[in-house]
């Protein structure tokens, strides 16, 4: 059995490094007993060998008897009471050098030698056709003090394994796992950075200090599928799959959220998370896409992507399957495409880049494509001339800088980059060992025994609870504008966008502004408020900051709502007044400005504010009712629509809250919508109270958000401007009682944590006390990694190329809560 040189450096030389490591100094008080020391044994074998399958571990000498002795021409070893699922195993072997020779490090001894080595596994059967290779062998005063021995045998089936032994400095129980250890010249054993991996039937997260980390997920005994793992970009959620489905949990395995139910495939699917944390892509072996927040966990909808591969002309005998999805930083997807035909059932594999609906081949004859964190390089696996799977690195173009990093006799797979792009980890198939190497040179830097499926853990990026507020309602609206919009002409602002317009409403009542949030979202505009009689100086200054002269300012309401003096103060801009005789008519005029052919309209009460404001963040037209009564202006607008969303010009009808829904149904049944067909379905989003209704809007229209906003349900000004602000960022407006966040809302916020970077509290402590901030902080991120009030307007978001959504396209319509109009 031959082992690649670089793996031996990490394993064999690294074993010596382990023994002199400073982190293990505390165990040196345990006196070493000659020929009775801690031993590591790893066995990988066929289940048909009649001996054992997959035994591995590190055992203290006080529990097991370890005898290794002999002289330079003869070695015998006896490791007793090895724990197994059945009878404890005993390994006994004798290796003798040919006559007149000494045992040599690096040489393999087999049954063709004379005398032939033997291996016996007590309690089972005698093994034959044995071979032994000494990777390390040290004698001190006539006894073996250090050995690393690879062995193989036929015990009714193939068996091979690795024995590490050192007689002078015992290892602590459980080591090595994932802590960097030094002692030998620059070659550690253990992980050089936080990492997760599979060990046995469990996922182990971030081991350290010489012991395993948290067991995040454990494979059920009856399930032959293996858990898989991937991390959210924020580093606060580990995604894994078992027979129950795909889950996202905190790094310690707590608070699991079901992302997708089980039964996706009999093949263990692989998952990748988009750079903004919002989407998980699963290849099983077709490609499906799900939101990371679990909103599609139990849906029967088809989330499969139809990917065309032009280079592969499929015939009836062709089979194309997708494997190993990985996102590049720009949001495109790297996939291994396995192609087989009836004549060639063994698939050919190549790497493809999928973007904008098309897949293009990037690297031929390649598997396990994994981009570096900055996207400049791609690690992949390719078979060499000897048929061994080796690890390569190439530039992002698929051709430049091609470098082969491994050259040994063991197959490698499952490459993973360290967060800084300097290191790579991979699985070594021969011994189920994770090996870590320098990504530029291939030099070994660490190893983790009895481990597979490495995934380096990204550093946890702090989540934020940000309070958006000012000294009054006017300045709070200005603060919301400053979060989203750069100064006009400032093309160098990396995280804020240029405003497309400004929406202006009165500051003393909500009547004309209820449809204004949606207009602001759609027009890529801040929503500001001012005194009806005059333009507030702070508002004028903010308009001058975000909007160049000649830009459009929408005034909501007639001259009684915003006086001619306000319009006159805006003479440098193009002023568009949207008004009607009533608040209902004004809402209609706003709706027409948003879209002449809307795909979705929202119907909510205009006599109160909560339902309409929650709806406004969606960015679709909001039509108003007079409580449970349908105004004639609203009915006329609705009657002109085709309420069949499936039609080319159809519009989905969504009611927000009980009064709006009651008004629509009564109008339909009362003949006020005569052009509507006899069979009409609307989406009804009506909770038990205003808080539950706002949550239903969020659950229906928003998934896997980077931002959400939370406002008091007791007043309207903060929710008005804040709803426009967060809708522009692609997130929902949520309402809460200032006395505390409801369990249902806390659960929703927790489900968003894989992508949620910022929760915006709208208003000062008088509106939302600090207890609300603390409640929210407890669920949106990892404890110790949530910052309350520490983010400035225009501050850097963690996601590559992430800027607030401009909301220039219509949002997807609702797919749940459909109710016939007759009910």
From TrEMBL:
Keyword Signal attributed: yes
Cleaved signal peptide residues: 1-31
Domain of life: Bacteria
InterPro entries on file: 6-blade_b-propeller_TolB-like, Bact_Sporulation_Assoc, Cell_wall-bd_2, WD40
Region of interest: Disordered: 801-823
Keywords recorded for this protein, A-Z: Signal
PANTHER family in the record: GERMINATION-SPECIFIC N-ACETYLMURAMOYL-L-ALANINE AMIDASE, N-ACETYLMURAMOYL-L-ALANINE AMIDASE-RELATED
Protein name (record): Uncharacterized protein
Taxonomic source organism: Catenulispora yoronensis
């Amino acid at each position: 059995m031959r082992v690649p040189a670089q793996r031996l450096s990490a394993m064999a030389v690294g074993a010596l490094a382990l023994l002199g490591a400073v982190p293990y100094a505390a165990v040196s008080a345990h006196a070493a007993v000659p020929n009775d020391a801690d031993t590591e044994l790893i066995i990988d074998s066929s289940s048909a060998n009649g001996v054992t399958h997959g035994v591995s571990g590190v055992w203290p000498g006080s529990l097991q008897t370890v005898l290794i002795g002999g002289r330079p021409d003869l070695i015998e070893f006896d490791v007793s009471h090895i724990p197994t699922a059945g009878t404890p195993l005993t390994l006994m072997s004798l290796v003798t050098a040919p006559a007149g020779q000494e045992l040599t490090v690096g040489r393999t001894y087999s049954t063709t030698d004379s005398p032939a080595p033997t291996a016996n596994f007590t309690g089972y059967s005698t093994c034959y056709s044995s071979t032994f290779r000494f990777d390390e062998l040290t004698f001190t005063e006539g006894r073996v003090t250090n050995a690393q021995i690879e062995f193989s045998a036929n015990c009714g089936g193939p068996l091979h394994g690795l024995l590490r032994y050192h007689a002078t400095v015992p290892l602590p129980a459980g080591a090595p796992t994932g802590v960097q250890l030094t002692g030998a010249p620059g070659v550690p054993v253990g992980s050089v950075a936080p990492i997760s991996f599979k060990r046995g039937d469990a996922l182990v997260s971030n081991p350290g200090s010489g012991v395993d980390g948290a067991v995040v997920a454990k494979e059920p005994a009856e399930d032959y599928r293996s858990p898989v793992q991937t991390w959210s970009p924020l580093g606060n959620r580990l995604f894994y799959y078992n027979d129950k489905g795909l889950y996202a949990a905190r790094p310690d395995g707590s608070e699991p959220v079901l992302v997708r139910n089980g039964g996706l495939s009999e093949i263990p699917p692989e998952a990748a998370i988009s750079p903004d944390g919002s989407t998980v892509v699963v290849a099983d072996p077709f490609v499906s896409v799900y939101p990371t927040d679990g909103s599609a966990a139990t849906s029967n909808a088809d989330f499969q992507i139809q990917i065309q591969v032009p280079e592969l002309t499929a015939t009836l005998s062709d089979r194309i399957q997708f494997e190993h999805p990985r996102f590049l930083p720009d949001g495109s997807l790297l996939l291994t495409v396995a192609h087989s035909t009836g004549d060639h059932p063994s698939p050919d594999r190549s790497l493809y880049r999928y973007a904008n609906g098309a897949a293009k081949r990037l690297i031929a004859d390649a598997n396990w494509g994994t981009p570096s964190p900055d996207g400049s390089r791609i690690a992949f696996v390719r078979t060499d001339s000897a048929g061994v799977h080796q690890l390569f690195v190439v530039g992002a173009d698929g051709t430049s800088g091609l470098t082969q990093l491994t050259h040994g006799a063991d197959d490698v797979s499952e490459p993973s980059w360290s967060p800084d792009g300097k290191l790579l980890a991979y699985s070594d198939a021969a011994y189920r060992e994770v090996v870590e190497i320098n990504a530029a040179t291939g030099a070994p830097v660490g190893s983790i025994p009895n481990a597979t499926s490495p995934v380096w853990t990204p550093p946890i990026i702090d989540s934020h609870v940000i309070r958006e507020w000012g000294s009054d309602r006017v300045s709070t609206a200005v603060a919301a504008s400053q979060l989203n919009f750069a100064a006009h002409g400032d093309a160098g602002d990396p995280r804020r966008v240029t405003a497309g317009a400004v929406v202006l409403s009165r500051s003393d009542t909500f009547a004309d502004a209820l449809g204004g949030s949606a207009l602001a979202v759609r027009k890529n505009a801040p929503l500001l408020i001012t005194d009806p009689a005059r333009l507030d100086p702070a508002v004028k200054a903010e308009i001058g900051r975000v909007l160049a002269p000649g830009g459009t300012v929408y005034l909501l309401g007639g001259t009684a709502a915003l006086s001619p003096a306000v319009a006159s103060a805006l003479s440098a801009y193009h002023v568009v007044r949207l008004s009607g005789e009533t608040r209902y008519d004004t809402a209609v005029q706003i709706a027409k400005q948003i879209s002449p052919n809307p795909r979705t309209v929202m119907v909510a009460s205009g006599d109160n504010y909560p339902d309409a404001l929650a709806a406004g963040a969606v960015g679709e037209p909001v039509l108003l009712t007079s409580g449970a009564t349908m105004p004639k202006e609203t009915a006329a607008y609705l009657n002109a629509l085709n309420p069949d969303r499936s039609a080319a010009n159809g519009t989905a009808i969504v009611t927000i809250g009980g009064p709006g829904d009651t008004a629509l149904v009564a109008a339909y049944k009362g003949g006020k919508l005569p052009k509507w067909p006899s069979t009409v379905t609307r989406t009804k989003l009506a909770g038990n109270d205003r808080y539950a209704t706002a949550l239903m809007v969020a659950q229906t229209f928003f998934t896997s958000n980077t931002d959400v906003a939370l406002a008091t349900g007791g007043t309207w000004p903060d929710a008005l401007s804040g709803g426009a602000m967060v809708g522009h960022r692609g997130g929902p407006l949520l309402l809460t009682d200032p006395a505390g966040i409801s369990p249902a809302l806390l659960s929703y916020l927790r489900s968003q944590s894989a992508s949620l970077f910022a929760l915006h509290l709208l208003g000062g402590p008088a509106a939302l006390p600090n207890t609300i901030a603390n409640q929210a902080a407890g669920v949106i991120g990892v404890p110790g990694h949530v910052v309350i009030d520490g983010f400035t307007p225009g501050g850097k978001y963690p996601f590559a190329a992430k800027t607030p959504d401009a909301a220039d396209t219509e949002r997807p319509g609702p797919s749940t809560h459909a109710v016939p109009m007759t009910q």
